[in-house]
Amino acid sequence: MKKLINEPGDVVDEMLDGMVMAHPEYVRRLEGTNVLTRADAPVDGKVGIVSGGGSGHEPTHAGYLGAGMLDGAAAGEVFTSPTADQLQGMIDACDGGEGVLCVVKNYEGDVMNFETAIEFAEMEGDTEIDHVVVDDDVAVEDSLYTSGRRGVCGTILVHKVAGAAAARGDDLAEVKRLAEKTVERVATMGTALTSCTTPEKGEPTFDLDDDEIELGIGIHGEPGVERVDVMSADAITDHLTERVLDDLALEEGAEVMTIVNGMGATPLMELYVVNRRLQELLSEREIEVWDGWISDYMTSLDMAGCSITVLELDAEFKELLGAPADTPALTVRE
Amino acid sequence: MKKLINEPGDVVDEMLDGMVMAHPEYVRRLEGTNVLTRADAPVDGKVGIVSGGGSGHEPTHAGYLGAGMLDGAAAGEVFTSPTADQLQGMIDACDGGEGVLCVVKNYEGDVMNFETAIEFAEMEGDTEIDHVVVDDDVAVEDSLYTSGRRGVCGTILVHKVAGAAAARGDDLAEVKRLAEKTVERVATMGTALTSCTTPEKGEPTFDLDDDEIELGIGIHGEPGVERVDVMSADAITDHLTERVLDDLALEEGAEVMTIVNGMGATPLMELYVVNRRLQELLSEREIEVWDGWISDYMTSLDMAGCSITVLELDAEFKELLGAPADTPALTVRE
């Protein structure tokens, strides 16, 4: 294993320190925890939006802390849910008096720990707390880690929609409605050219030959649903996009936004090649692309590969997605 | 070789199409060329700032097209200089009547082709054109590709300083003075955990064992100046930072900005671990960090590793670095 790390057991702690040192204007660390919050949390008079999960998906989640997106982000160990008490501490720290919405990726550990944290936070305080579960991965119905579909890169769009709704003053019920509507209309599928290597294990989580790739991978080093011979970027993009579009059942004339997401070790050059084919395909199907993002948003350590996310839009979504966001990993200008 | 590409010979063309489709509000392609310009180029009454070089370093250079940075970016084939006629076409397209400054990384092909392009552009037009050569890599004095030091990630800071000076209305001589001052005060050094693989060759440009890394690498798959056993992130950071600081000969109390740059296949998690140690080291030496950037700015295809850049600041630089920039790869807010 070759990684820019020190002791494997220290990597999350040191990464969080490095993030705070890099972005002191955006984030601070709750003392004694692996929770980062907005530097100005809690923001009074606004619904707090928080998320969290295992580390190894950076910039998810802490990269999205800031105005117009998240108030809190809890980091578990690599590919491991944060504990319920850390989640509870985060919820408390992001409570500006208008309630808190937790955005949870659909993994059993995350869902269980968030539900426990919410229960305790509600018992001990007087704020209303609610949550949404994101399950945008169309590749599998159940996996090693989940009942139902996994939550992957579409989560970022839930952060953006909920964050913008909270920023303009929507109440908790309305923020939750919009977050759930995002979950219903977003779909993702990914491919891996390589496995990934966790710092603790030090070896790839699955073996993959030099002439093979995996289609339908998750973000925790799970193998995909199908192992195939190496394909061209266009063929891969066609496969992923068709699965995503079938799931959404879009009609001609639909308006969408797209994400081409790198899995952690994918050069930007390759993501742009994928984006070219994605945009061609959508144009052929007479689906209009309102905006498209290309970068590393939801990664899986040092995995090479990408995922494609499509969200079906309407006027309500466009207002929220186009609203300003100011975070380390994502900026939307006024 | 596993890459998200189609035919190796098409990768640059397809990438550029993918960039234009991703960022139509920022960039357009000069028809029949591999030159991208700002969507609104030429900007009348402003010195044009242009750059270019081989592909494989994305987001360099086209990712920096936009207000406050570059007006034009020419993309050669992978690790190959753009031709002089493409560079001349770019210079012409970015000439808003106040002259054009070319920012050139110090590689023999780039320098030669830019000089030829400038000569022809000056013969055929009546605009003044000038250039600066960036040579921030402290690792080697001469290399396979260069006489003198190589131009690497510090180039981004030259784009930022020159772009901000041009945006506020400085004339060509003043923009050039500020760009050259940046070159004098910036230093970079990098490390590779893996080699990189060019699409055409399909094999790593150098061999590296599982327990070895290279210190002092360039951005074209050149091996480093020293091959050593795998080291911890802290030990690597110490080594790179000390070389960079020795070159700059900073005194206690100096003020700097830093970049921790990923080489293309480096997870953000690891860059933050490196940043933590970098900031510690600078603090120990009583050097004040005004700002620090962490991302992929100047990559080398699918190389894993990082580089560290330090620029010594003064009031003039802080004004220009803090001025707004609005580009696909870098945003500085008002």
TrEMBL record, chains A, B:
<dbReference type="InterPro" id="IPR050861">
    <property type="entry name" value="Dihydroxyacetone_Kinase"/>
</dbReference>
<keyword id="KW-0418">Kinase</keyword>
<dbReference type="InterPro" id="IPR012736">
    <property type="entry name" value="DhaK_1"/>
</dbReference>
<dbReference type="Pfam" id="PF02733">
    <property type="entry name" value="Dak1"/>
</dbReference>
<keyword id="KW-0808">Transferase</keyword>
<feature type="domain" description="DhaK">
    <location>
        <begin position="7"/>
        <end position="330"/>
    </location>
</feature>
<dbReference type="InterPro" id="IPR004006">
    <property type="entry name" value="DhaK_dom"/>
</dbReference>
<protein>
    <submittedName>
        <fullName>Dihydroxyacetone kinase subunit DhaK</fullName>
        <ecNumber>2.7.1.121</ecNumber>
    </submittedName>
</protein>
<dbReference type="GO" id="GO:0047324">
    <property type="term" value="F:phosphoenolpyruvate-glycerone phosphotransferase activity"/>
</dbReference>
